[in-house]
């Protein structure tokens, strides 16, 4: 059946809304834009002035209605100022992680203003490379290192970090970068944190995100977040900064774990919807050495010389 672009988009919006997709209109436009090589706004304009439904549109809409992630269908995810390559086998970056990146960027800019030369950043469990790529792009003075355990996610991260100066290694966040211990200025992590007996609410995550990127281990889901915290303490210099994403209900136990690990200035950070979705803290500064009370007072007169 021949349809105009406007008719096709309206049909797709209805199909996606009936499938329970809140962003039905946006997704309908983005799928058409993917096939036409146009932006969302350009699709809306062409739908008004006239145009035909692109070939393959109905098939893509049907896939999206089955809750295949939009990003898997288009092959891209928009994250802050970047367009990332994503697909099966890698966690699709979420908007709440953009606020974690902002926290890192703000910290790095403060460190640069304070005279820290080329601050060193480690991203533990980088997934698609979204955090590492964004930091490398927005703070080019930073030296960025990232680690990812999953073979498939590592491949996506390598693609997204290509052309940056970020170092990417495949490995376990528990033991990553032993050569950088005590030398890092900032550590950031968005580790898996869903409890083993919990299921993601959205079918897109539940059915298509890799389990390795979702489940944090243990009844509370905090086994890997605690491991990331331990690695951060190991990697950071005195006064270094660590920020980690977590579920809203985990804010209190995560803050407690930060303090138990010896971090100071522990503070929660909210996402754009006002939910407590990240916690930050610092390693203590080195205390100034106490004066040696047994040492001779160099300001006292030399009795032997009097």
Automatic annotation (TrEMBL):
Compositionally skewed regions (Acidic residues) per UniProt: 294-306
Database matches in PROSITE patterns: N6_MTASE (PS00092)
Enzyme Commission numbers on file: 2.1.1.297
Catalytic class of the enzyme: transferase
InterPro entries, sorted: DNA_methylase_N6_adenine_CS (IPR002052), HemK-like (IPR004556), N5-glutamine_MTase (IPR050320), PrmC_N (IPR040758), RF_methyltr_PrmC (IPR019874), SAM-dependent_MTases_sf (IPR029063), Small_mtfrase_dom (IPR007848)
Keyword Transferase among record annotations: yes
The reaction(s) this protein catalyses: L-glutaminyl-[peptide chain release factor] + S-adenosyl-L-methionine = N(5)-methyl-L-glutaminyl-[peptide chain release factor] + S-adenosyl-L-homocysteine + H(+)
Binding-site residues, substrate: 190-193
Domain of life: Bacteria
Residues covered by the Release factor glutamine methyltransferase N-terminal domain: 7-75
Keywords, alphabetical: Methyltransferase, S-adenosyl-L-methionine, Transferase
GO-annotated biological processes: methylation
Binding site for S-adenosyl-L-methionine: 125-129, 148, 190
Methyltransferase small domain ranges (all copies): 105-193
Coiled-coil regions listed: none
Chain residue ranges for the region called Disordered: 272-306
Keyword Cell inner membrane found: no
Low complexity compositional bias, start-end: 283-293
A GO term for molecular function: nucleic acid binding
Similarity section: Belongs to the protein N5-glutamine methyltransferase family. PrmC subfamily.
Function statement: Methylates the class 1 translation termination release factors RF1/PrfA and RF2/PrfB on the glutamine residue of the universally conserved GGQ motif.
Annotated protein name in UniProt: Release factor glutamine methyltransferase
Species of provenance: Kocuria turfanensis
Lineage per the UniProt record: Bacteria, Bacillati, Actinomycetota, Actinomycetes, Micrococcales
């Amino acid at each position: 059946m021949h349809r105009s672009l406007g008719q096709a988009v309206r049909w797709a919006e209805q199909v996606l809304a009936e499938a329970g997709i809140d962003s039905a209109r946006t997704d309908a436009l983005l799928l058409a834009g993917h096939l036409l090589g146009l932006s969302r706004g350009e699709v809306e304009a062409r739908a008004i002035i006239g145009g035909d439904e692109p070939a393959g549109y109905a098939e893509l809409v049907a896939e999206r209605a089955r809750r295949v992630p939009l990003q898997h269908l288009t092959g891209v995810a928009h994250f802050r100022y970047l367009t990332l390559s994503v697909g099966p086998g890698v966690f699709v970056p979420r908007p709440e992680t953009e606020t974690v990146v902002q926290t890192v960027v703000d910290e790095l800019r403060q460190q640069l203003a304070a005279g820290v030369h080329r601050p060193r950043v480690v991203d533990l469990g980088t997934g698609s490379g979204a955090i590492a790529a964004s930091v490398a792009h927005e703070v080019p003075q930073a030296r960025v290192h990232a680690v990812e355990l999953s073979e498939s996610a590592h491949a996506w991260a390598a693609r997204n970090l290509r052309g940056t100066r970020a170092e990417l290694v495949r490995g376990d966040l528990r033991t990553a970068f032993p050569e950088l211990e005590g030398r890092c200025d900032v550590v950031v992590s968005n580790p898996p944190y869903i409890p083993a007996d919990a299921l993601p609410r959205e079918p897109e995550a539940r059915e298509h995100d890799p389990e390795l990127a979702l489940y944090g281990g243990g009844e509370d889901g905090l086994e890997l977040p605690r491991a990331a915290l331990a690695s951060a303490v190991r990697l950071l210099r005195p006064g270094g900064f660590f920020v980690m994403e977590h579920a809203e209900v985990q804010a209190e136990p995560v803050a407690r774990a930060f303090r138990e690990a010896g971090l100071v200035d522990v503070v929660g950070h909210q996402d754009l919807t006002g939910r407590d979705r990240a916690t930050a803290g610092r390693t203590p500064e080195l205390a100034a050495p106490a004066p040696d009370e047994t040492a001779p007072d160099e300001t006292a007169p030399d009795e032997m010389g009097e």
